[in-house]
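Good morning,

Attaching, inline, the backbone tokens for the sequence recovery test we're adding to the shared suite. The designed sequence is right after.
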């Protein structure tokens, strides 16, 4: 009797698990956007000005488009010298080009330089963290005029996933008191990237 009850119990768990909804890519992006909105809603973490935070509901995003989740060829560039990246202030953080990602969008072969902040190398919480700042032809219209960012991890293979649906604005898009890296000219894309976060307060 005990064995029968145990078998029924296990079958119930298995059936219940099989009925659970599998997370789709849209669900993944929605979860990312939700976490970003929570971060911006919290006065302890939000870069928003007090007057903007008071009325803040959520950030605006392009509709999720899986075509903007790119699996790019990735070439490491281990001998690149460190350099001072320009920012919106006179601060000059030290970065190193870690590699070059090459991919296709709208039939065009494009490339982006991917960087590693030297300070992140010394911080365990940012171990393996890479930084991708970029500009595209939506700048100043649908998106922030000084570009957007994507956070990445060092890949284990010769490809890297660049998900433009998870691109976000520099803090400077919300508050001028911050100092934000300006995407190097090498990362200007001659296409519209209609994915990720939109310009703040324009939609």
């Amino acid at each position: 009797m005990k064995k029968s009850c145990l078998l029924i119990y296990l079958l119930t768990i298995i059936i219940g698990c099989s009925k659970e909804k599998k997370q789709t890519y849209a669900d993944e992006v929605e979860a990312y956007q939700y976490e970003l909105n929570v971060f911006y809603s919290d006065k302890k973490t939000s870069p928003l000005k007090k007057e903007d935070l008071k009325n803040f509901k959520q950030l605006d995003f392009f509709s999720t488009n899986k075509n903007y989740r790119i699996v790019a060829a990735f070439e490491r560039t281990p001998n690149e010298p460190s350099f001072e990246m320009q920012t919106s202030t006179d601060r000059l953080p030290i970065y190193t080009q870690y590699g070059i990602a090459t991919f296709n969008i709208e039939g065009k072969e494009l490339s982006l330089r991917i960087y590693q902040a030297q300070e992140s190398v010394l911080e365990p919480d940012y171990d393996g963290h890479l930084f991708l700042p970029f500009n595209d032809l939506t700048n100043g219209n649908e998106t922030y005029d000084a570009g957007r960012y994507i956070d990445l991890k060092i890949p284990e293979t010769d490809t890297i996933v660049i998900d433009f649906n998870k691109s976000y604005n520099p803090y400077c898009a919300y508050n001028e008191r911050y100092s934000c890296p300006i995407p190097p000219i090498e990362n200007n894309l001659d296409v519209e990237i209609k994915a990720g976060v939109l310009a703040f307060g324009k939609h």
